[in-house]
Design a protein that fits this description.
heterodimer; A: Methane Monooxygenase Hydroxylase, Chain G, domain 1; seven-stranded mixed β-sheet; five-stranded mixed β-sheet; 19% strand; globular; B: 317 residues; alpha+beta; Ubiquitin-like (UB roll); 3 domains; 14 helices; 7 strands; 13% strand
């Protein structure tokens, strides 16, 4: 059995940043990931990373306030303070590692504007910031000769005596099922977009880590907070970065109006994402849309500017829609993009399960609260990825390896075998996933109410029953994506139910959670986190207080 | 619309032979090849193995050969290549061993990338803040950082096809990203390494990598740039450099390419083993009637050609 001080599940930005830190701290580190590191979905972050650099007259407190206001006061303010204070160092470190950030005329790092903030403090690499950062962190993993279990799929977290002590995983290339022992584990598995359809997320974003944590007894927090990004392509849901609006693009309706004037006269197109998405949906619902979309207009920016600063957007528009952004506005609509909710951690990445940490999109520290600001997610990954590894050092020192009992490995193998043994008269996992995801989008959308949430939850419960009837075409061992798909669906059903449970529990509207039956924010009763746990009775919801430091909740106007 | 995909299959567990399987299905007008493959996997045949993730040409997972040339299938629309529902052939990437169906073993690919020491090596005096660098130098690098490591260039590289040890277009483009980075302190060491066998001089300039790259990285152009930089750094003891030099000399002198002399000078007159090797090649060429003339003829307007060559050389200086 392999053994590691620190095992990190996921090789996106949070996972790799944690891994690099673990190595620097002298730990025996390994990363286990179902795709090669550079295939991770951190790639898809386009617009940039926020940081308030003091040497150019910016103030972390201003960044913190924008973040807290953006979160609709649901973020824990102590965590936000840490993120915003550490942002500058994190950014400069990335630059030193080799990220080729855009420069200003003096050769210093240049910025662009982003939503929900008045000050331009978003540092960027064209419209491929996430990709440029991910590849650099991969470079660092080569430099540090990091151990990587590449294309291994984790199926279970193993707990012994209440502590997290390792994982069971499948080596996808051979089909071998093995146990890996670890003193500490960081879950950094990213988002869960595939629980919805359409979504901007990659096919790999199946929320594995959320379900793994839930099954290990950890709590998920504020799961109902699903970000609908204002500018996604109709149909396939592909993202067009907020950088477009940051650089000056307009949103217009069928009457050629910049409709944001009605909803956010001060910030216009650069209001918070939840606000812009609701505004667009209102326009569309009230008949001022065009085939279920509104338009993103960049014509006035000019071809050269677009290609230099937003090249990837032009590529996506041309390749997928046949539209040259400098000539024609592009139809867009709100689309599922990000989960603010996730595995509850403290600001050092620790979950409620000893030895288990989480960082990145799968975690909820919480710095994004009810709505994440654009360009805060990349920051979140590197700041809290690093902190989770630092924090694990003490735990690693004080704990011994614990053998993973054979029974657990055997029972996992039996679980997979039972999937292979299913009669082929049933349903394919892909079809079941699609059914679930479409009903989630319908029930937990930009708008939601008691009835729509109940309907979605009923449907998911129904899917869970139907899961017993799935069958696999592929009975082989080598690279069996049929099996992996079925196991991912099993995880996604947990995630979907957690989202429904959180949404049903929160009896108010806040940030991305907008209930048409309860339209107001209710600070008296709901300045609270929802906490979902899974036990024998199902998905249970508790609440906990939000940490307020300096910023008392105010009315949120943009 | 109708889609007909002829997909190369290979299952190492059940049948050691590769074969093609035809799938016919209905897809949306806007569908990409990836959409069709996913539909096959989800609705028709769960045994089909492929890699895919982002669907938006940024993760680099879904490189495959389509009708014989490497593409990212997520950005290849069926309507563009098979508007009438023509049969589309889908195969795994070339120059890499197949694991199963459309999934190839990319370890050789990553080993090459690691071979070029793909990480920043700045000097010891890191600034407190960011490095100061011009926006132009960074923007120039963005074009190379666009590389998503999909393997399309490596799949279709004609040099790799005959020489597995060639570092190859993707890894060399990656190397260029550091060679050209003003913040990196080891450009000269990097060029020295890349100047060796299997390095920049092994590219045959066939242009395949530039043509198939789905992200406009143009690996071959980066390789050519590194040849120039290596020469500028004074690394001239290579057959590649001698080849270039002899090429220019010959054309400048006679207006024609003296192939026999070119071969000799490239190998180097003091390289005994190389010359013996060359003698065998020469003999074979002689037997097949393909030996170039030993005494070259002058081109008709060799004086004018000489002027052009001189002008170019002066322009460089």
């Amino acid at each position: 059995m392999s053994k590691h001080d620190l095992l990190i599940i996921g090789a996106g930005l949070a996972g790799l940043r944690a891994a690099v830190e673990g190595v620097r701290q002298g730990l025996n580190v390994a990363v286990i990931t179902k795709v090669h590191p550079v295939r991770s979905h951190s790639n898809a972050a386009q617009g940039g990373i926020n940081a308030a650099l003091t040497d150019r007259g910016d103030d972390w407190r201003d960044h913190a306030f924008s973040t807290i206001k953006g979160s609709d006061y649901l973020a824990d303010q102590d965590a936000v303070e840490i993120m915003c204070k550490e942002a500058g160092d994190a950014l400069i470190e990335l630059e030193h590692m080799g990220v080729i950030f855009s420069r200003d005329d003096e050769g210093k790092l240049g910025t662009r504007a982003f939503g929900g903030q008045k000050k331009a403090r978003t540092f960027f690499v064209g419209a491929i910031t996430g990709s440029a950062m991910l590849h650099v962190l991969y470079e660092q993993s080569v430099k540090y000769n990091l151990s990587i279990y590449e294309e291994w799929f984790v199926t279970k977290l193993v707990k012994v005596d209440g502590k997290c002590v390792g994982v069971i995983a499948i080596d996808m290339k051979t089909g071998k099922v093995e146990s890996i022992s670890a003193k500490s584990i960081v879950i950094a598995t990213g988002g869960a977009g595939r629980v919805f359809e359409p979504s901007t997320n990659a096919i790999i974003c199946t929320g594995d880590g959320l379900s793994l944590a839930l099954r290990a007894g950890a709590e998920l927090m504020d799961t109902e907070m699903i970000q609908y990004h204002p500018t996604t392509l109709a149909g396939n849901g592909i993202l067009l970065s907020e950088a477009a609006r940051g650089e000056g693009a307009y949103l217009i309706n069928s009457e050629n109006e910049r409709f944001m004037e009605r909803y956010a006269p001060d910030y216009m197109e650069l209001a918070s994402r939840d606000v812009v998405s609701r505004s667009e949906q209102t326009e569309i619902d009230e008949g001022r849309g065009i085939n279920g979309c509104v338009l993103l207009d960049m014509r006035h920016l000019g071809k050269i500017f677009i290609e230099e600063r937003l090249g990837y957007l032009q590529e996506v528009a041309t390749e997928f829609m046949g539209i040259d952004l400098s000539e024609k506005p592009i139809p867009i609509k709100p689309g599922m993009h990000y989960i603010m909710g996730g595995i509850k951690t403290d600001y050092n990445g620790a979950t409620s399960v000893p030895g288990l940490y989480a960082a990145g999109e799968c975690a909820n520290v919480s710095v994004h609260g009810a709505n994440r600001l654009g360009a805060n997610s990349l920051l979140d990954t590197v700041v809290f990825g690093r902190r989770s590894a630092v924090n694990s050092v003490e735990w690693v020192k004080n704990n011994e390896f614990i053998e993973i009992p054979d029974e657990i490995l055997i029972s996992e193998k039996k679980r997979f075998q039972s999937l292979f043994d299913q009669p082929s008269s049933g349903i394919r996992p892909g079809k079941l996933r699609l059914e679930m995801a479409e009903s989630m989008t319908k029930g937990i959308g930009v708008w939601r109410d008691e009835k729509s949430i109940n309907n979605a939850w009923e449907k998911v419960k129904n899917i869970r029953e139907n899961y017993n009837n799935i069958f696999l075409d592929d009975k082989g061992k080598v690279y069996n994506t049929d099996l992996i798909g079925a196991l991912e669906l099993d995880f996604m059903i947990d995630v979907a139910e957690s989202i429904c449970a959180g949404a049903k529990a929160r009896k108010e509207s806040r940030g991305a959670h907008f209930r048409t039956d309860l339209k107001d924010r209710d600070d008296k009763n709901w300045l609270k986190h929802t906490l979902v746990e899974k036990n024998d009775e199902g998905f249970m919801v508790k609440t906990s207080d939000v940490k307020i430091t300096d910023w008392e909740p105010e009315e949120r106007v943009y | 619309m109708k889609a007909v995909l002829d997909v190369k299959r290979f299952d190492p567990e059940n049948n050691s032979k590769e074969y093609f399987q035809k799938y016919e299905l209905e897809v949306e007008e806007s569908s990409t090849i990836l959409d069709a493959l996913i539909k096959i996997r989800e609705d028709l045949d769960g045994t089909l193995a492929l890699r895919c993730s982002c669907r938006a040409s940024i993760c680099g997972s879904c490189g495959m050969r389509v009708n014989g040339s490497a593409k990212l299938v997520c950005k290849t629309r069926l309507v563009d290549i098979a508007p009438e529902g023509e049969k589309v052939q889908v195969e795994p990437l070339g120059n890499m061993p197949i694991i199963k169906d459309l999934v190839v073993d990319m370890n050789p690919f990553w080993n090459k990338v690691q071979q070029v020491r793909p990480f920043m090596m700045p000097n010891n005096t890191e600034p407190e803040g960011e490095y100061i660098a011009s926006n132009e130098s960074m923007t120039h690098l963005v074009d190379v950082m666009n590389c998503i490591m999909c393997g399309a260039c490596v799949s279709d590289c004609t040099a790799l096809e005959v020489d597995e040890s060639f570092i190859g277009p993707a890894a060399l483009a990656k190397a260029y990203r550091f060679v050209a980075d003003p913040r990196d302190d080891k450009s000269k060491d990097r060029l020295k390494y890349l100047n060796k066998n299997s390095g920049v001089w092994d590219c045959t300039r066939c242009y395949a990598c530039v043509e198939v790259c789905p992200k406009g990285v143009a690996p071959m152009e980066r390789i050519m740039k590194m040849r120039d930089l290596a020469i500028e750094e004074g690394f001239k003891n290579t057959s590649g450099y001698r080849h270039t030099k002899s090429f220019v000399n010959s054309v400048g002198k006679s207006g024609r390419l003296d192939e026999a002399r070119l071969a000799l000078t490239s190998v180097g007159f003091f390289n005994v083993f190389g010359l013996i090797d060359l003698a065998f090649v020469g003999l074979k060429a002689l037997v097949k009637g393909k030996l170039p003339p030993i005494l070259p003829h002058k081109a008709r307007e060799s004086e004018n050609i000489k002027k052009i060559v001189n002008k170019i050389e002066r322009g460089k200086g």
